Amino acid sequence: MPMRYTVTLSSVGNPTYAQDPDRPLPGVANMRKPVVNFIEASRVCRKYIDDNDLSSRNWSGGDVHDRSGALVAKVSYNGKVWTPEGANTLNAKPLYDPYATQDRPADPFAFDSHVVDVPEFGQISVTGCYGIGTIASVPGAFSFGGRTVEFIHGVTHLAEGGIEMHPDLILHPAGNMSISITAPKEMLNSLAQALKEWAASLEGRVLVMSNEKKDKLRTREYLTRNAAHHGAEMQRFISLSTENDVAIEDLDDAIEQLQAEQAPKP
């Protein structure tokens, strides 16, 4: 099958670990690879990342060019393939998602969410459990200054039914994450009021409690699975310890027998 595209494979240093962000990692060669389609581009990128143990801040490749040299897609660190614009756009849909398979079972502990109306600005979705949560603009349904904006922001759900919004809400016009606007005070006030009313409602409290239950169920499953694993490991180590003790006893017997055989005869 003829190769239709090439994908760049490259790295840069992570300044968090005193690595040069303007140069490739030592010993990691930058290259281009021919690929047939976006699926292969994703697989090639993820193999390069895994083979070179790259973090997300080390990854600088993923540009997919067609045979004319035009940039037609970008592969992100997680292997998803995006349009060149979509790679930096909040709520964009990938051209290819390696995790979106029909055989993948639904997450039984996925949090529920609810849409809340924010007067004068639009709609947001709210999700989360006690202590942690997020609010996000409903795609295409939240605006500021006459244009659509997108955001994802943290909130804290309180057990008594309250909610606290984290400071410094950042808006992205049309979801473009290269452009950031700090939310004005009037928007924050409107958001805070809408969230306060929702969090105090029966619907809001039930949703947060239901999500808290799911979080506890997920934790129980995780702990049960790990307890079983460590229990099996403990039994294996006990068995190995017993075998080791037997081997020590056998060696003691062998040493005594050897010494007896070598002892001078009267």
Structure characterization notes:
There is one protein chain. β10 (152-157) and β11 form a beta hairpin. The radius of gyration is 29 Å and the shape is flat. Strands 6, 7, 8, 9, 10, 11, 12 and 13 form an eight-stranded antiparallel sheet that branches. Strands 2-1-3-4-5 form a five-stranded antiparallel sheet, covered by helices on one side. The chain has helices at 38-51, 185-200, 202-262, and strands at residues 5-9, 31-35, 63-66, 71-75, 81-82, 113-118, 122-129, 132-144, 147-150, 152-157, 163-165, 170-173, 181-182. It has 266 residues and is α+β, with helices and mostly antiparallel strands. The protein has two domains: 5-88, no CATH class; 106-243, no CATH class.
Shape: flat
Query: How many angstroms separate the termini?
Result: 88 Å
DSSP helix fraction = 25-40%
Approximate strand percentage:
25-35%
| Structural class designation | alpha+beta
Key descriptive features of the protein:
flat; single chain; 266 residues; 3 helices; 13 strands; alpha+beta; five-stranded antiparallel β-sheet
